[in-house]
Every structure is written in C-alpha cells, then in structure tokens.
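Async update (no meeting this week)

Hi team, since we skipped the sync, here's where things stand on the single-chain job. The sequence we agreed to prioritize is pasted below, unchanged from the tracker. I ran it this morning and attached the output directly underneath so nobody has to dig for it. Comments welcome in thread, and please keep replies under the output.
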Amino acid sequence: MWFLTLHRWTGDRQEAIRNSLDDHLAWMRQQQRAGKVLIAGPTPDQTLGIIVFGHMSQADVDELCSQEPFIARGYREYEVIAWDVHHLLGIGGFDVEAIDAMTQSG
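Output:
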C-alpha cells in the first residue's frame, strides 16, 4: 500500500520556517534515501505539503510523520490517504484482470 499525506499548517508558518526548515529538509532527505518518501513538495501557495510514502503500513506512516520536525514541533498536522497505485509512469495494469490481480495480491 502507498500513502498520500497532506500536511497543513497549524502553527506560525514563518516561525516554523525559521526554526525547523533545515531539520525538515534533513528528515526528508533521510526518508528519501531510506526509500520511504517517494514524492514530496508543497502546493504553489505553500499552504499544503504533500508526501507520498511507498510500500509500508499506515502505522509506519504515522510513526514517520510523528517524527517529522514540523509535525513534532506542533507547526503542522497531517492527513493520511491510503492509495492503491495501479499505474505509474506508464507501468501497471491497464485492464480489469490486471488490476484485480494487483488488488488481490496485497
């Protein structure tokens, strides 16, 4: 299972950037190198952060997110959306039989 997480500001954004951006980026780099964070970035207006986590449990996602500096320091909250990825960069099942097989295998 993949997970899409949406990160919303709950604290002072400017204060968070001053106090925690370097730690946030180091955390992101560490998770990316470990193969846990696949895609990440903010919306153009900087009001929402989006992170895609690859193959793990929701408990693992919650554990990781609780350690993310913006969240751990009370500047953000997050929402987890479970995601059955069927297609990625032109790879995947493009018929009902293939999708059914992927869905039943996990």
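Quick observations from my side:
The helical segments are 13-33, 58-67, 69-72, 96-105.
The two ends are 8 Å apart (CA to CA).
Reply here if anything looks off.
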